[in-house]
């Protein structure tokens, strides 16, 4: 369920990590803290929240103020399960990597809302995806790099420090932190993808947690914390077939063209069953695909980072002419006019 940026929130422990770095960052950092009234958060605890959009913007600005383009990587490397509060403790208490990541993805809204975290198993691969649902929160590369690096840190707490993924994806374009990311992961990240992802061997999911990494060994304690996490959930993620189809299409966009048969396969359904389930909800696969393309097309145009040809390719069109024709059918304006319009006009076009 997509939220407006103003509605989504994040609990403060992660922001407090940024605050600690800023407090030791020199005169410019101190001025930044004072200008934004941030020292008030120093007494905050796990249960306090702040708007997610503000957190993302502050994270980006903090990296500039500190002249630290790898700030998200730096903070993510130091994350342990305990850093994530009750959520991290339950993750640390799981017997295998699969169960740990399932807890992390299913309970992420105990830590922050307006967020998609998903574990997929496709053939011989396991894929952990992370992104913010509100496409208008941009730029957000520090949060993306922090989240993927910190998730890798949690995986290494279970698998061992030598573990490395097969592939790493980021939504944003290659930046100054690319070399640092490559050194940390042991693989060259790929940028400009549809989501922020860790791709690794599916066999790893069955790996038993090292005894030293399991900070909780009482099943009663874990059950108590799981019940507590339910109370902390900021937002309940819908378990609806349409939302699942949207989620899978979003994963395919930027990688390959989503098809009805591929989406049905990933859902473990036959094509006919999926069509029937969507028909009951008075929507078709084609309409969902168009809506997903329109939403992503809007976001990519507003960011202004890609050419029309690159956007067309990302959305699965043969060329920019085909994309422009489809975009005009959706909005009654060309992509170029959409880019030149103001925010109020864009919002009307998007309706």
Quaternary assembly = single chain
Number of strands: 6
* Beta-strand content estimate: 5-15%
Biggest sheet descriptor: 4 strands, antiparallel
Strand order of the largest sheet: 3-4-6-5
Helix tally? 17
Order of helices and strands: EHHEHHHHEEHEHEHHHHHHHHH
Domain unit count: 2
Structural class: alpha+beta
Arithmetic mean pLDDT: 84
Shape: globular
Query: Distance between the terminal alpha carbons, to the nearest Å?
Result: 17 Å
Low-confidence sequence ranges: 1-6
Q: Nearest-angstrom radius of gyration?
A: 21 Å
Helical fraction: 40-55%
What report would you give on this structure?
The protein has two domains: 68-230, no CATH class; 241-350, Orthogonal Bundle (Arc Repressor Mutant, subunit A). With 351 residues, it is an alpha+beta fold. It is 52% helix and 9% strand. It has 17 helices and six strands. The longest helix has 19 residues, at 141-159. The strands form two sheets. It has a four-stranded antiparallel β-sheet with strand order 3-4-6-5, with helices on one face. It is globular and about 55 Å long. A hairpin with a 2-residue loop joins strand 3 (115-122) and strand 4 (125-132). It has helices at 13-23, 27-35, 52-65, 71-77, 86-92, 97-106, 141-159, 178-185, 219-232, 241-252, 260-267, 271-280, 285-303, 308-315, 320-331, 335-340, 343-350; strands spanning 9-11, 49-51, 115-122, 125-132, 167-169, 196-201.
């Amino acid at each position: 369920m997509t939220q407006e940026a103003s509605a989504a929130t994040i609990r403060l422990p992660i922001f407090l990590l940024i605050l600690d770095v800023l407090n030791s960052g020199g005169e410019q950092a101190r001025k930044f803290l004072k200008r934004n009234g941030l020292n008030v958060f120093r007494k905050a605890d796990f249960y306090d929240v702040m708007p997610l959009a503000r957190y993302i913007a502050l994270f980006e600005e903090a990296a500039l103020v500190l002249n630290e383009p790898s700030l998200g990587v730096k903070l993510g490397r130091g994350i342990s399960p305990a850093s994530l509060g009750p959520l991290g403790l339950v993750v640390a208490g799981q017997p295998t990597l699969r169960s740990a990541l399932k807890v992390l993805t299913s309970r992420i809204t105990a830590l922050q809302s307006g967020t998609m975290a998903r574990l997929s198993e496709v053939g011989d691969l396991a894929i952990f995806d992370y992104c913010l649902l509100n496409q208008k929160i941009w730029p957000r590369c520090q949060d993306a790099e922090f989240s993927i690096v910190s998730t890798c840190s949690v995986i290494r707490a279970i698998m061992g420090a030598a573990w490395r993924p097969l592939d790493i994806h980021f939504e944003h374009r290659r930046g100054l932190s690319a070399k640092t990311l490559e050194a940390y992961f042991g693989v060259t990240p790929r940028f400009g993808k549809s989501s922020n992802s860790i791709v690794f061997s599916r066999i790893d999911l069955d790996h038993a947690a090292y005894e030293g990494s399991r900070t909780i060994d009482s099943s009663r304690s874990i059950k108590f914390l799981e019940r507590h996490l339910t109370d902390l959930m900021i937002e309940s993620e819908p378990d609806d077939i349409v939302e699942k189809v949207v989620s899978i299409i979003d994963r395919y966009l930027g990688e390959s063209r989503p098809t009805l048969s591929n989406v049905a396969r990933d859902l473990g359904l036959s094509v006919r069953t999926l069509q029937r389930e969507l028909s009951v909800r008075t929507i078709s696969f084609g309409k969902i695909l168009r809506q997903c393309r329109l939403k992503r097309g809007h976001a990519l145009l507003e960011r202004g980072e890609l050419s029309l040809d690159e956007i067309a390719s990302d959305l699965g069109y043969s060329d920019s002419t085909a994309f422009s024709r489809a975009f005009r059918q959706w909005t009654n304006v060309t992509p170029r006019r959409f880019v030149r319009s103001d925010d109020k006009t864009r919002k009307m076009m998007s309706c």
